[in-house]
Design goal:
The complex is a heterodimer of chains A (about 400) and B (about 425).
Chain A: E1 3-8, H1 15-29, E2 33-38, E3 53-56, H2 73-82, H3 85-102, E4 106-110, H4 113-121, E5 125-130, H5 153-171, H6 182-185, E6 190-193, E7 209-210, E8 232-236, H7 244-252, E9 257-261, H8 267-273, E10 278-281, H9 287-290, E11 296-299, H10 303-312, E12 316-318, H11 323-334, E13 338-340, H12 350-359, H13 361-374, H14 379-395
Parallel strand pairs in A: 1-2, 1-4, 2-3, 4-5, 5-6, 6-7, 8-9, 8-11, 9-10, 11-12, 12-13
Helix pairs in contact in A: 1-14, 2-5, 3-4, 3-5, 7-12
Chain B: E1 3-8, H1 13-29, E2 33-38, E3 54-57, H2 74-83, H3 86-103, E4 107-111, H4 114-123, E5 126-131, H5 154-174, E6 191-194, E7 233-237, H6 245-253, E8 258-262, H7 268-274, E9 279-282, H8 288-293, E10 297-300, H9 305-310, E11 316-318, H10 323-334, E12 338-340, H11 347-359, H12 361-372, H13 379-394
Parallel strand pairs in B: 1-2, 1-4, 2-3, 4-5, 5-6, 7-8, 7-10, 8-9, 10-11, 11-12
Helix pairs in contact in B: 2-5, 3-4, 3-5, 6-11
Classes of the chains: A alpha/beta (about 400), B alpha/beta (about 425).
Chain lengths: ~400, ~425
């Protein structure tokens, strides 16, 4: 049976661990052993990792200043600490020590570029998992993240060269296996995209495997739609978003029954915002129970919720908060089943926006066509596909 | 031969990494297997001789120091580093337990590593503390205050102690361990290598105990010689973030003094301003022994090299940048062996203090007298004795129980689900 090391190195929220855990569970059920290396010590308490053995991932030094709008993925790496050869050297050594200690058959890297580079130096098999954004298109130069902004290939190449130079310096005395181009930084035996090709932020592409979205959609609070024939709006919102109050106010006046999931909101605030036609829950909700009957899904365009809405054939009003979500939102708008508000544009009259969207029959039609194309999608099967593929690579 | 882990969990930048590397070098030379479990890993690039050791990220919290007041006791420090919540601490403790259970050290050398000590305690591992006075609190209940520049209410000390103890016990319970009655029990070890002397100790109120003397390997590092010339010899070990650094660089560059400096990762433009015919700027830690034979002043922020160089009879100029260093600097002043300046001292103040420290023979006389007070101490002898004591400890079974034999089920894995214990 195989030993699998699941690494989460970057990315602030819990999406990475929540994606890895079902896969790890599946692998464990298949008889494999799992160790986690995660970035936040708060989750080494065994609760989130469900008793799986877990170590802290080596940490890079956080740079004093970051580029607000990184041009390509190499630019993102510089923001994450790849401009610091000393920090990178230490982290690479620590990953290598971890591999020597755990002796994994495969590394499963969820936004873990340093782990990947270190694994490459010891010829450890590796698989990346993610929803696409942390698995950049492999080309030279590393492609621009915002294709609608003109970019100079020489500028992109210069950023790549900077990263490669730092990596080369950091690997001196450690390994001769130095990545020679930006694609080599992310070289892996498989890139598993736990999403639909339609939702790949960089567009459907070759060289990756779309194992499909997965996760525990059935977890969360159980809520139900009230009986009746009114339109139904489901909203999944982050209370910290600057537009939260305006959106919530507009939803309260919508000519529809509304369910709002706002994890992180104070329970008393959720209670105060709820009324006869709107229920606000300060926690994640069971999406499987309500999404299928929704007329509109309002969310920040996180890949998980969007995948659920797409599979359920529900049109979307998208309020992306950052680039990854914005790219996903663009793809849904191109598919004809969503409208989006960019985080950079002034907030519109949300009430008018929701009213108009609820009247647009074409959005629902397009969403239903997309859902039909996906067939009876099983989110559990997505997890299984990822686990089977990882096990095959580990044992291959 | 033993497996020895050196664990550094709290505290800044260079001193801990270098001290651990010095001790590790001696232990490695004796045939022991070494691992570093370090809170910061970039210092390894200055310590090339460590390349054959295993290196791990020490469990640290991403939220360190958020919203905590200026610490007055060790418990206050703990509260700012994850001990304000049993949940956060459970994560830290879980990380250390996983690391120790995997690497299976015969002994953990703990340099400012309270949670490493807690994990070693839970696993019954042999363990020693290694540090200056600040990181090794006297085992009193409550852990006493180290602040002496303002009155500290005893209730505040007791409350902080009780809070940290409650978190520690909650975390211990999560892994099935027995609670501690006192926070001081967390610091129980096979030996405290208290690498200082009573006159320099952060805790002026420590009960009688053994002092091992300052730690430093004066024989490791880059070979640097004093430049030729008539000027005084000034040895500089500072961090580039020190606010007064540019003032000091300007003063030294305009002076006739000879300088040997190590300032990690100093920007090339500032290196260019400092370096000159009479002034050497080293990219790596320097071999201090030969330099200290003829040295008129050691300039530092109050790290462990401050007491170590004092033992060579060298007077001190100290720019303390945090409280631990401030205590050391105050001790230096009290002993009459040097001058303390604020970290953001003006150019005029820096120039005045530098000249006064170099011109007034009383500092040198006091420093030499201080060194003579401990005739048996020398850095190599201190290290030899520590290594001998470590080998004595690992030669005997752990008096705390120790890890289960290979192949046995680990006794402490995080239990599944929230709050459950077994």
């Amino acid at each position: 049976m195989a030993r699998v090391l699941c690494a989460w190195e970057f990315g602030g929220d819990l999406g990475h661990v929540r994606r890895l855990i079902p896969i790890a569970r599946e692998l464990r059920a298949m008889g494999h052993s799992i160790v986690f290396a995660i970035r936040d010590s708060a989750y080494l308490n065994g609760v989130l990792t469900e008793g799986f053995e877990a170590l802290l991932a080596p940490l890079l030094r956080v740079p004093a200043a970051v580029t607000v709008s990184p041009l390509n993925f190499s630019d993102i790496l510089l923001n994450l600490g790849f401009d610091d050869w000393r920090g990178l050297h230490g982290a690479l050594r620590a990953w290598r020590s971890m591999y020597a200690l755990i002796e994994p058959d495969v590394l499963v890297a969820d936004y873990a570029p340093t782990a990947l580079i270190a694994a490459r130096t010891v010829q450890l098999k590796r698989v990346t998992v993610g929803t696409g954004f942390s698995q950049p298109r492999l080309a030279s130069p590393s492609p621009a993240l915002r294709p609608w902004v003109a970019s100079d290939p020489n500028v992109l190449r210069a950023i790549d060269d900077r990263v490669l130079g730092v990596v080369r310096t950091a690997l001196a005395g450690i390994s001769e296996r130095v990545p020679e181009n930006p694609a080599a930084l992310f070289e892996a035996d498989a890139h598993l995209l736990c999403t639909f090709a339609e939702l790949d932020p960089f567009g459907a592409r070759a060289g990756v495997e779309y194992v499909g979205p997965q996760g525990d959609a059935a977890s969360g609070v159980n809520v139900d739609w009230p009986a009746g024939a009114r339109a139904r709006v489901f909203a999944y919102l982050k209370p910290a978003d600057a537009r939260f109050a305006a959106v919530l106010g507009a939803l309260a006046r919508a000519d529809a029954d509304v369910i709002v999931a706002a994890p992180g909101l104070a329970p008393e605030a959720a209670l105060a915002a709820s009324h006869a036609t709107m229920r606000v829950v300060a926690a994640p909700v069971n999406l499987e129970r309500i999404l299928g009957a929704a007329s509109l899904c309002v969310c920040h365009s996180g890949p998980g919720v969007v995948a659920r809405a797409l599979a359920a054939g529900v049109p979307m009003a998208l309020l992306p908060q950052h680039l990854e979500q914005y790219l996903v939102a663009l793809r849904m708008r191109e598919a004809g089943c969503a409208e989006l508000i960019s985080p950079d544009e002034p907030p519109p009259d949300f009430h008018a926006w929701f009213t108009r969207m609820l009247r647009r029959a074409d959005l629902g039609d397009a969403a239903r066509v997309r859902a039909a194309a996906l067939g009876e999608y099983s989110f559990a099967a997505g997890t299984r596909r990822a686990a089977v593929r990882i096990a095959a690579i580990a044992q291959g | 031969m033993a497996r020895i882990a050196l664990a550094w969990e709290l505290g800044g930048e260079f001193g801990h990494a270098m001290a651990c590397a010095d001790l590790a070098r001696a232990l490695h030379a004796r045939g022991h297997t070494i691992s570093f479990m370090f809170r910061e890993l970039h210092q390894l690039t200055f310590l090339e001789e460590t390349s054959s050791y295993d290196v791990f990220q020490a469990p640290v919290t991403l939220h360190e120091g958020h919203g905590s007041p200026i610490p007055a006791s060790f418990a206050d420090i703990l509260l700012g580093c994850g001990y304000d919540s049993g949940r956060a601490l459970t994560g830290l403790l879980g990380g250390w337990l996983a690391l120790f259970q995997r690497w299976k050290p015969d002994l953990v050398v703990v340099d400012f590593g309270p949670t490493a000590l807690l994990a070693a305690r839970l696993l019954g591992l042999r363990r020693v503390s290694y540090g200056n006075g600040f990181s090794i609190p006297p085992r009193l209940s409550p852990l006493p205050a180290f602040r002496f520049d303002e009155p500290i209410a005893p209730e505040r000390i007791a409350q902080a102690d009780a809070r940290a103890l409650a978190s520690a016990n909650a975390a211990i319970a999560r892994f099935g361990g027995a609670p501690m009655q006192h926070l001081a029990q967390q610091f129980e070890t096979d030996e405290d290598f208290l690498a200082t002397f009573p006159e320099l100790d952060s805790y002026g109120n420590r009960p009688a105990t053994g002092f091992w003397g300052p730690r430093a390997d004066l024989d490791a590092g880059a070979d640097v010689r004093w430049p030729d010339g008539p000027g005084k010899r000034v040895l500089v070990y500072l961090k580039k973030k020190l606010a007064a650094l540019d003032a000091l660089i300007g003063t030294l560059a305009a002076s006739p003094h000879r300088v040997a400096a190590f300032i990690p990762e100093l920007e090339p433009v500032r290196v260019a301003r400092l370096a000159g015919a009479r002034r050497v700027v080293s990219e790596r830690p320097m071999r201090l022994g030969p330099l200290l034979v003829q040295c008129d002043l050691f300039v530092s922020q109050g790290s462990s090299l401050c007491p170590a160089t004092l033992m060579s009879g060298v007077p001190q100029l100290v720019f303390p940048s945090q409280y631990e260093q401030y205590v050391t600097a105050r001790r230096v002043e009290q002993a009459g062996v040097g001058i303390m300046l604020p970290p953001d001292a003006t150019a005029a103040a820096v120039a005045e203090a530098l000249e006064r420290a170099l011109a007034n023979p009383s500092f040198t006389a006091a420093a030499k007298a201080f060194a003579r007070r401990y005739p048996q101490y020398s850095a190599p002898e201190q290290e030899r004795r520590i290594v001998a004591r470590i080998e004595e400890i690992v030669a005997h079974p752990s008096r705390w129980g120790g890890l289960p034999p290979p192949g046995a089920t680990p006794i402490l894995t995080p239990t599944q689900g929230s709050g459950a214990t077994r």
